[in-house]
UniProtKB/TrEMBL annotation:
GO terms for molecular function: flavin adenine dinucleotide binding; N,N-dimethylaniline monooxygenase activity; NADP binding. Keywords: FAD, Flavoprotein, Monooxygenase, NADP, Oxidoreductase. It is an enzyme of class 1 (oxidoreductase). This is Flavin-containing monooxygenase. Belongs to the FMO family. Its EC number is 1.-.-.-. SUPFAM superfamilies: FAD/NAD(P)-binding domain (SSF51905). Its cofactor is FAD.
Amino acid sequence: MPIKFIMATATPLFTPRHVAVIGAGAGGLVAARELRREGHQVVVFERGDQVGGSWVYTTEVESDPIGLDPKRRVVHSSLYNSLRTNLPRESMGFRDYPFRRKEGKERDSRRFPSHREVLKYLQDFAADFEINDSVRLHTEVVYAGVEEGGKWTVRSKSIHRDCVDEIYDAVVVCNGHYFQPRLPHIPGINSWPGKQMHSHNYRTPEPFQDQVVVLIGGAASAVDISRDVATVAKEVHVAARTVEEDKLGKLPGRDNIWLHSMIDSVHEDGTVVFLDGNAVIADFIVHCTGYKYEFPFLETNRVVTVDDSRVGPLYKHVFPPALAPWLSFVGLPWKVVPFPLFELQSKWIAGVLSNRIALPSEEEMIEDIEAFYLSLESSCTPKSHTHNLGMNLAQWDYNNWIAAQCGVSAMEEWRQQMYIATSKNRLTRPETYRDEWDDDDLVLQAEQEFANYEI
Ligand code: FAD
């Protein structure tokens, strides 16, 4: 029987709660939908002027291009103008709201579309599930703290009014984790005379015209930005931790991009020395070195802390045992396919809050977390990789475990196969993987399944 596209109507009511969702990005939107489907009463707080979170592109950048000044006005989005998704749309979309190709002047029907199309998809999602009614735009949560008795005070301020305190049964944190730059330690950087920028503040290549640029990082945005910058720069030198020795040197097919090992040190005369012994005199360093988790509004009396990018202790990256289920987090895992994972986390939270799904006891959750931390230590995984689910395809086991808790079907096999196929394709065709691929059979499987969802 075809699975029907379900609108945001309240389904069987268990114990309805009054829930504050912080953030209206992909995580907050799907959390709101799942909570409302379960019958909860939801308010979504969003400090921006529209829904979509990271996918709301802006030309605005921060006053401190490397994000060290704590007083700077934070710009949320880290998107650059030329960004296209690094995941194919079929696997990227929510499970029951396929990210379909839409024809039309304003639409981008490519398989790996531009960021503008992702924003439209999220806006469509919010409209189709009538989530906008629950969203308070221009409203920043400045404090969310647990009170005696277990209720939560949420203090918000908006452009329309000063701070207001409200009481909620539960708080779901969906504030994103791609807006607080993380910088590497580079010996000599304080007296290096050139300019610096974190990729958070990269929008277009123009500022790099005729410059010698060193770009640090090996992940997707480093690959994209180095190619973008190379269209105008004199030279681009990419320093990455994981470059194979035979790949060091000039990038094949490019006359102004070089690959290097990591930076060893930088010097007052502008020199950047790499660990492989090479050196260049550079004008600019661009740090594509990732982001930090931050929850400046959250007061848990130190029950939840952030230590070296480990947010913890959290049961399955979602619930702090001592405050479960009244505090939860959507979206902490990385190196994952985010939207469907957020969807499952949200279903789990909604079901647990209504008492439809049971959590283990606090002690059992703590034991599980301790065993998880021990397993990370024994495999020499750094603490900072606690929420990295990219290893050994851990995200699929994780998704399927949550799906089982929720009583919904496991993740479709084609999603995992497509993820593997895309990762391989990106390695072999780093320049063209968004336009050339070999997994049309998987696209067909996805489309056959999408036919079950009515829009
Ligand atoms: P966000 O989208 O960051 O949303 C968080 C929201 O919370 C924001 O709207 C913010 O304004 C709001 N907020 C924060 N603090 C407060 C507060 N105190 N009060 C009120 N509101 C608050 N994913 C993919 O699936 N495919 C891709 O191709 C892809 N490419 C990416 C490229 C880049 C450069 C980056 C940075 C990320 C990319 N991602 C990609 C990951 C992307 O971030 C996730 O897909 C997803 O959009 C994250 O959603 P989120 O809801 O967790 O966070």
